[in-house]
Amino acid sequence: xxxxxxxxxxxxxxxxxxxxxxxxTIPVLASGGILMAVMQTVVVPLLPDLPRLTGASAAAxxxxxxxxxxxxxVLTPVLGRAGxxxxxxxxxxxxxxxxxxxxxxxxxSSDIGVLIAARALQGAAASVVPLSISILRDELPPERRGxxxxxxxxxxxxxxxxxxxxxxxxVQYADWHTMFWLTSALxxxxxxxxxxxxxxxxxxxxxxxxxxGALGLAAGLVSLLLAVSQGGIWGWGxxxxxxxxxxxxxxxxxWWWQQLRTASPxxxxxxxxxxxxxxxxxxxxxxxxxxxxxxxxxxxxxQAPKATGYGLGLSIVATGLCLLPGGVTMLLFSPLSARxxxxxxxxxxxxxxxxxxxxxxxxxxxxSRDLWMIILGATVVATGxxxxxxxxxxxxxxxVPAAQTASANGVNVLMRTIGQAVSSAAVAAVxxxxxxxxxxxxxxxxxxxxxxxxxxxAVALAACxxxxxxxxxxxxxxxxxxxxxxxxxRDQAMEGA
Length: 497
Known about the structure:
Helices cover 78% and strands 2% of the residues. The longest helix is centred in the first third of the chain and has 32 residues, at 142-173. By secondary structure, it is mainly α. The chain has helices spanning 16-41, 50-54, 58-61, 63-86, 88-108, 112-122, 128-139, 142-173, 176-197, 211-234, 239-260, 269-272, 275-303, 316-344, 346-366, 371-399, 405-433, 446-469, 475-496, and strands at 435-438, 441-444. Helix 7 packs antiparallel against helix 17, helix 13 runs parallel beside helix 17 and helix 16 (371-399) packs antiparallel against helix 17 (405-433). The protein is globular and about 65 Å long.
């Protein structure tokens, strides 16, 4: 801990204004997480129309999504480390401010270059959840921490479920810039509320920021995720994609070597390689893969033309409403996740959540024609995702020192992001391979969708196996430590007497 950092007074003490700020800490942080997820999804309904609205090609327009993915993957561990070193509230506020500036840029311009740059700025908001979880660890008493962390983890799914229908309604009934003016106003409100209601954590890890490590990680991740996200467009065997994969392997290998020899590394790899931390990251990657396929495939399936024999021909607004029950479920089930983790441990919650995800995909395979079954299957997957995503940060909190909470959770979120990127590429490859012409246009077959569900369900079961492999807490160790402390205190008291 940084000994020069001011020590915050206990929550619930001080002036009425201070007590009000303490009560608003969790709602303000949760609203920031929801806003981040909304900001990431609002551009999705725009993608079919952006080439016409901006005069750009479809390939250029796709970068409004890719830029956010790349910058978010790079900045999440970097800003997490900065939060541990320089103050979590300070870095969190800066991330929300960058997100808001990006939204204002989108509202003011129709130039595709400006939009891509703005979306890259918004990628900084991906660090909001790990920074907020770290603040909750530092500021809340243990009895409130579990439910708050579970809620914070669920904001990603809640925001995504809210963002899609909201954006679709705005795009359908108003000028598309209106959507970004709305998110700009919400972002500015979020920055002000965070600065006012959230106290700066006194927990710091002193040292010098690893600039070389940050640049190396950025180069390696950009090469890797660019190859994964663009492989289906450029061709998986093309020189560009193969070159990017080779570059990613070489750069990340050098980065790993550099991190092990740096006094203050960006990522503590010795901590990452411990089974409790490393297996949690593996489970996060697999869970991210399994979860993301649900949103991708559901949206395409219900919008497919009725002429396919299975499609429902729904509008983008109706599609968003189909995903809304999953978001509501995530909000309702986050307290349950905290209770299971408190009673059985977070690794059991994670294993249960990934098993529920697999069950949801089994429902999707059994029936993907009736709307109510599609919604039921998607909601079951969302329920499992709530349990899993709520357990992951709790596993990290229990396995790492308090001074490294933000950076460790940043790496965990990064692994989810990589899993989602790989899921997007894998689902796209499956659906392209299993398609048939309809009116001269290739359309995925029902068998292709079912294969995608089977693939995601299998990955969810692999995540379940990884969760069960995570070493659990040793109850006897805690008892021994408590007895040792009691014995030591008794001996000291006797010596003093």
